[in-house]
Design brief:
heterodimer; A: alpha/beta; D-Maltodextrin-Binding Protein, domain 2; 2 domains; six-stranded mixed β-sheet; five-stranded mixed β-sheet; 17 helices; 13 strands; B: mainly alpha; MetI-like fold; two-stranded antiparallel sheet; 13 helices; 2 strands; globular
């Protein structure tokens, strides 16, 4: 008798735990769950959610914010466990994989019009099957952040930094500027006689690691301004081109900046010491970083920073990746009707203007972007280095984050390969082999 | 339940009672070990991403594994790690155990020796990650104070594996030392007394009495620690995530990446089966070489 009671109680407990979990993680008919990773953006989307709830009485948006690394681990786990959010912020880097896993809901019926958004943003979220799996949310470009005082001390100014050019032979005016900004322990600059490259106090350029397969804030702007493209196709290419001579000569020059002592060595790069930290700590004078880092740089105590456009390359053009995030709906969303409504609102002019008003990110619609530029200006932040590439097509080339099948495999092969060239002294030609492996995978 | 208590006498009754007592352990074994192992072996012959049904591909995953240079490289990295980790750990643990036995029997000291083991691997990894940080780590402050250049312990290809191996030595050496210490307790004191009467030195006694009589315990400890060492994962995941440039991409981490990073559960299962085979072979060879089942005592 007693045993049975215990068993019954245990069983009931276990059952309540299971159902409890399911309820806790999921959503009921009137709740829409939404995930994002950027803390800075949380207040902006909370504001959107409040407006949305007013217009849709009975619907309740529940936003969860998780750090970048946990975000993707948890999201994947949630798809497997069936506890996925109804709507989530999506990144091109992960898009291919989610499309492969068939966990995304096609959004063609929402009637998203490409021309409502900044050029190229909406098209990035079309799958290989031609269907839409994400609605444009925001965009970002990359520019050169610099420590104003260090630049002044080196005898340079904003106009100089906005007029740099590079080439793979002698590095051009860009390398000269970076050398000038480098200072060794004895106070000698990188372009002065007797410069000691092994004891550098301030590097001209911060390190942001090897850049993996995309080089977003490391080498991609150099590669693109030399005319190189990841696969030769805008999206869903089937052959990578890391074996290309243009690419390899650029990489050899770029990582070579570290051998000359102008760029911080690979071993300086770690999770605790990314490019922005190096600038904040005063161990680097400049760093390539994305628009999403503006608020972070702005928050550094005692460092006044400026931003400059990326250097012009052998093609005569300047280049930057223009990446955009999107909102995607889970195929097995518990509240699909609510999810579709919410994702449509997220992509609307109204919500994007609200988000723009917070001045933390550039929304995907032109009006939203304008609101953001005004909001940044109010905070005293000049964002023209990030917006000019989008407006001035004559002098700038913008390109998308590479999207192909097997994106995770490509990253898994390219990460160590680039680290090895940068930090391990492996010849740049070793990328031929890596490229072959990658294309073999894409072939299957 | 009623069955177990129905007949309390006779052989059959004992058997049933035994079955009842064994059942919970067997259930755990079957659910958490046997079934996952069998499933893993099955999955190694499939293409499976967890979300869509598994598709039978025969030996494809094994063919891919044999031709995968990263698999062989990660196996090599793992072996280097195990040799460093087990080599340093066993010698240090043996030294600590002998000191604990011959010099002091303070239970306090034994407790202190064990403390790192009480810490979770992940916590130990994070703490050491900060200690060894090139810019901010107190470890590098000490290196600087000694007049040397900062050492990028976890971001340099040469240093990363030894650094991780030593972090895990730090965590496990106390536990290993206590296991060996327990083995030392079984060696009769009169042997040492007799040796002393004969004028043997401490070193000679260690070589002629301690080591030979400790052999069976040492063998079991080695087998256990080698298996554990081969499965290193958490410290790597926390400190280097397999980098720089795959320098610390140990087999377990590579398997994890294939499964949970790239959703290739079939290929990850194949590599897991390979690891199981390697470990079984090593254990068998170790067992035979060290005659772990026999004792020289008596």
């Amino acid at each position: 008798m007693r045993f049975r009671t215990v068993a019954a109680v245990t069983g009931a407990l276990a059952l309540s735990l299971v159902t409890g979990c399911a309820q806790g993680a999921g959503s009921s008919a009137d709740t829409v769950t939404y995930w994002l990773w950027d803390t800075n953006q949380l207040p902006a989307y909370q504001a959107c959610a409040e407006d949305f709830e007013k217009q849709n009485p009975g619907l309740d948006v529940k936003i969860s914010q998780l750090g970048w690394d946990d975000y993707w681990t948890k999201l994947t786990a949630s798809f497997i466990a069936g506890t996925q959010p109804d709507v989530f912020t999506d990144h091109i880097q992960k898009f291919g994989q989610f499309a492969d896993l068939q966990v995304l809901e096609p959004l063609d019926d929402l009637g998203i019009d490409d021309s409502d958004y900044q050029p190229g943003l909406a098209a990035s979220w079309l799958g290989e099957d031609g269907r839409r799996y994400g609605v444009p949310k925001d965009w970002d470009t990359v520019a050169l952040f610099y420590n104003e005082k260090m630049v002044k001390d080196a005898g340079l100014d904003a106009a100089d930094l906005n007029d740099l050019a590079w080439n793979p032979e002698d590095g051009g005016t860009f390398e000269k500027a970076i050398a000038r900004l480098t200072v060794d322990e004895q106070g000698r600059r990188g372009d002065e006689p007797g410069f000691d490259k092994d004891n550098v106090k301030v590097y001209g350029l911060a390190t942001n690691g090897g850049g993996d397969g995309d080089g977003q804030t490391t080498w991609s702007h150099f590669a693109a301004s030399a005319g190189w493209t990841y696969t030769g196709k805008e999206r869903w290419g089937t052959e990578y081109r890391y074996d290309d001579d243009t690419f390899q000569s650029m990489i050899e020059w770029y990582f070579g900046l570290a051998d000359k002592g102008y760029m911080a060595p690979f071993t300086d790069y770690s999770v605790s010491n990314q490019a922005n930290t190096q600038v904040a700590a005063g161990t680097a004078a400049t760093a390539f970083d994305g628009a999403w880092m503006l608020s972070t740089y702005d928050g550094f105590e005692g460092v006044d920073f400026g931003t400059a456009v990326t250097p012009a390359g052998p093609t005569g053009k300047r280049a930057t990746m223009m990446n955009g995030l999107a909102d995607s709906v889970s195929k097995d969303a518990r509240n699909k009707a609510g999810a579709l409504k919410w994702v449509k609102y997220l992509a609307s002019e109204e919500c994007q203007r609200t988000v723009g008003g917070y001045g933390i990110v550039f929304p995907a619609t032109p009006d939203g972007t304008e609101a953001a530029v005004a909001a940044y200006e109010k905070k005293g932040i000049d964002v023209s280095a990030f917006t000019r590439p989008v407006e001035d097509k004559e002098n700038f080339r913008t390109f998308s984050y590479p999207i192909t099948n097997y994106a995770a495999d490509v990253q898994a092969l390219m990460r160590p390969a680039m680290q090895d060239v940068y930090g391990g002294g492996r010849p740049v030609s070793s990328l031929d082999e890596t490229n072959d492996q990658i294309n073999l995978i894409l072939d299957q | 339940m009623s069955i177990a208590f129905s007949s309390r006498s006779g052989k059959q009754g004992d058997g049933r009672l035994a079955a009842v007592f064994i059942a919970p352990a067997f259930l755990g074994f079957a659910v958490f070990l046997l079934w996952p192992t069998l499933l893993g072996v099955y999955l190694s012959f499939t293409r499976f991403n967890l979300l869509t049904p598994a598709e039978w591909v025969g030996l494809d995953n094994y063919v891919r594994m044999v031709n995968d240079p990263i698999f062989w490289e990660s196996l090599r990295v793992t072996v280097v790690y195990v040799v460093l980790n087990i080599g340093v750990q066993t010698v240090s643990a043996l030294a600590i155990a002998v000191l604990l036995q011959r010099l002091t029997r303070s239970p306090w000291l034994r407790g202190i020796v064990l403390t790192p083991y009480l810490m979770s691997n992940v916590v130990a990894g994070v703490v050491w990650l900060w200690i060894l940080d090139t810019q901010l780590g107190i470890g590098n402050e000490i290196v600087m104070a000694l007049g040397l250049d900062r050492v990028p312990f976890l971001t340099d290809e040469t240093w990363a594996v030894p650094a991780i191996a030593l972090i895990n030595v730090w965590r496990h050496v106390g536990y290993t030392a206590l296991l060996l210490f327990a083995g030392l307790q079984a060696i009769p004191d009169d042997m040492y007394e007799a040796a002393k009467v004969d004028g043997a030195s401490e070193w000679r006694m260690f070589r002629r009495i301690t080591l030979p009589l400790l052999r069976p315990v040492l063998a079991v400890v080695l087998i256990m620690t080698v298996i554990g060492s081969f499965q290193v994962f958490d410290t790597v995941a926390v400190t280097t995530a397999g980098g720089p440039a795959n320098a610390t991409n140990v087999l377990q981490f590579y398997i994890y990446g294939a499964a949970f990073g790239r959703f290739q559960f079939g290929y990850a299962s194949a590599m897991s089966v390979a690891l199981l085979v390697v470990l079984s072979a090593i254990t068998f060879v170790q067992y035979r070489l060290t005659r772990a089942g026999q004792t020289d005592l008596g």
